[in-house]
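Exercise 3.2. Students should predict the tertiary structure of the chain below and write it as C-alpha cells, then compare their answer with the key that follows.

Predict this chain's 3D structure.
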Amino acid sequence: MTDTTMAAEPIKLTRKDFASDQEPRWCPGCGDYSILAQTQKVMPDFGVPKENIVFVSGIGCSGRFPYYMNTYGFHSIHGRAPTLATGLKIARPDLMVWVVTGDGDALSIGGNHILHAMRKNVDIRVVMFNNRIYGLTKGQASPTSEFGQKTKSTPVGSVDYPVHPLMIALAAEASFVARTVDTQVDHIQKVMERAGFHRGSAFVEVLQNCLIFNDGAHRAFTDREVREDRMLVLEHGKPMLFGKNRDMGLRLNGLRPEVVRIGEDGITEADILVHDEASEDPTIHNMLARIYWPEFPVPIGVIRNVPRPTLDELIEGQIRDAVGRRGKGDIQQLLGGGDTWTVE
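Answer key:
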C-alpha cells in the first residue's frame, strides 16, 4: 500500500492556515480553547494538505471542533463519530482522519463504536475531552463522573463507578494510547503530534476542565502548585520518576505498584520501573491506565505505542489478492449475471 497521507514535498503551512473563519464559542475559561489552539499549532508539522485532512465529531461541546478547523469536517450524530470515520478511512485511505469527542459522547452511547474502531486498528486519531460531566446538556453525570459526585442527574451523589477511558482503549487493543492535560500546552502539542504521526488506532484522553458544570474536576493533581508531586510524566525508556526533586517513583511490589522515595530503605533509581511504551505485554500499560490520585500520581504521556497492520491496509491487501487471482472483474456482468429462477 502506498501511504499518500504524508505529502511527497513538505508543505509550508502555519497555525493560521488551520484556523477557520468561525469564531470559537465555548464558555469563557473552557479547556476546549486550549485543545483547539494546540491542535492548530501541530497540524502544519504533518505536511498534509488541508484538503486531505478531516475532523469528525459527535454531539457535545467537543462537537463544535470541526467548525473551527480549516479542513474538511463532519459534525455527526451522538456517539457515531468513530463509525463514520471508519467508513471514511476505508473509502479514502489517503486521508488523515481525526475524531473529536467527549467522555459522554464516546463512552456512553458511543462506547460500542469506540471499541470496534480501536480493535480493528482503523487509522484514525480519537481525541477524547474528559471533563467528567455532560456539559452541553447542562451538567448531568457522565460515564467518567466520580462515585458519589453530585450533579443535576445525581443530586444526592452518583452510585455508578466511573469508567477508566485508557483501560477501555487498551482492552480494545488500540495501538496508540495516551493522556494529556488541557492546561499543559507543551505536553498537549507533543502528544497530539505523536498521535498524528502514528499509523493505526490512536486514542488520546485530554483531561479538560468544565468551568461551569464541573469546575476543578482535575485540580487536585493538575494545578501548577501540586502537579510535580501528583503527576507522573511518562517518557519511553526512562524510569517512572516524579516529584519536585525527582526523587519519588513507582516500583512493583509483587504484582502491585507502590510509590517509593529514592534514598529511603535502600531504594535506588535501579529499583524504579522503566517505561516501555512499545511493550507487547499489556500488564504495566494496564496498571498505568488504572492508577489515579490520591493513592498514586496520575500518569500522563504515551502509555502504549505499538505497530500493527491497519484496517485499510488489510482490506486493500485482500482486494489486491482477489484481483490477482480472479482479475478485476466486470461490474455490469456482476449486476446482470448470475442464476435466475422463475417462480410460478
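Discussion points: The longest helix spans residues 311-326. The mean pLDDT is 93.
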